[in-house]
Design a protein that fits this description.
By secondary structure, the chain is of the alpha+beta class. It has a single domain, classed as Cyclophilin-like (Cyclophilin, Beta Barrel). A hairpin with a 2-residue loop joins β1 and β2.
């Protein structure tokens, strides 16, 4: 759901007195990512990648991402996380079928990392620091940062000569669905 569509839906819900229901639906599609520098809010895009969004939500609910590092961070390009091993070789053990779309990779886009096989995405994802349109139609976009991008900008950068590998990397403190936050 785009921000414009969401705003319109919430306005209609408010007029109809459905605020609590609309808020709950909205919160089901928001993920809070806590970093040492503050909160990042990711709006999921089930309209683009329903399978990936469902799997990400499942992993978030399991606490899979809590304490996971940003193992590959390239200044001006992206910050990658989601590997429980912390070196780019691990995952949750469940490969996902590609859900490529026309959604562009721009600043704040959240997209799945994968190996050469288009159907090899698992739990690793990246957040774009800047436009990366060369990735369009080749990686599954499943969300976008709607608040806290300044906190992603502060994630420790890696060594360009080592493909963005980060020594003593920053980590995700906690990820949770907004609907699960009391």
């Amino acid at each position: 759901m785009t921000k414009k569509t969401l705003s319109a839906a919430l306005a209609i819900a408010a007029v109809l007195g459905l605020g609590a229901t609309a808020d709950a639906a909205d919160k089901d599609n928001l993920i809070y990512m806590e970093l040492k520098t503050g909160r990042v809010v990711i709006e999921t895009r089930p309209d683009l990648a329903p399978g990936h969004v469902a799997r990400i939500k499942e992993l978030v609910k399991q606490g899979f991402y809590d304490g996971v590092v940003f193992h590959r961070v390239i200044e001006g390009f992206m910050a990658q996380t989601g590997d429980p091993l912390g070196n780019g070789t691990g995952g949750s053990g469940k490969k996902l079928k590609a859900e490529f779309s026309k959604e562009p990779h721009v600043r704040g886009t959240v997209s799945m990392a994968r190996a050469q096989d288009p159907n090899s995405a698992d739990s690793q994802f990246f957040i774009c620091f800047a436009d990366a349109k060369f990735l369009d139609n080749q990686y599954t976009v499943w969300g976008r940062v709607i608040e806290g991008m300044e906190n992603i900008d502060k994630v420790k950068k890696g060594d360009r000569n080592r493909n963005g590998s980060v020594s003593d990397p920053d980590k995700i403190i906690k990820m949770q669905l907004a609907s699960d936050v009391k």
